[in-house]
Design a protein that fits this description.
Helix content: 25-40%
Number of helices: 3
Number of strands: 6
Strand order of the largest sheet: 5-1-6
Largest sheet: 3 strands, antiparallel
CATH topology: TATA-Binding Protein
Structural class: alpha+beta
Number of domains: 1
Radius of gyration: 14 Å
């Protein structure tokens, strides 16, 4: 499948936690710019989405605040499964950061997994801890 990050969403995000996630994501975006430019960025009350700037783009990362409707969930599952192939392009750092913050704020709502190793995630862990003043660690749950 290629270098990919996966997540399972078990419920919608609490509005205060979502607002915090969006704010942290904006801080992180500012911290990675200009070395990593993002395209098609949406950080709203409903969705966080972005991609890399061509030719450093791959698949768009999309995280929705609300739980997806049953017809988009895995059959007979209590969660919504999603993934983003980044091919380890520069915007991959931002994808990992958002997943780390989301899981730190709402561990019962979202879990993540990855094709990457812990060493691949260390720059994201360090950036989140520095920029967001959170104490996150690499802890894939899936």
């Amino acid at each position: 499948m290629g270098y990919t990050h996966y997540w399972r969403q078990y419920d919608g995000f609490n509005s205060d936690k979502w607002d915090a996630l969006v704010q942290h994501s904006l801080y992180l975006q500012a911290a990675v710019y200009p070395s990593t430019k993002l395209a098609d960025v949406e950080m709203s009350d409903f969705q966080i989405s972005f991609n890399g700037v061509s030719p450093q783009n791959h698949e768009t990362f999309i995280l929705d605040r609300a739980m997806q409707p049953p017809n988009l969930r895995l059959p007979e599952k209590d969660h919504f499964f999603n993934f983003c192939k980044t091919a380890q392009k520069p915007y991959d750092l931002m994808v990992m950061c958002v997943l780390l913050v989301a899981n730190a704020l709402e561990p019962d709502v979202i879990t993540y997994a990855t094709d990457g190793a812990e060493s691949d995630w260390q720059p994201a862990v360090d950036l989140v801890n520095k920029v967001c003043n959170l104490d996150v660690s690499f802890n894939p749950n899936d």
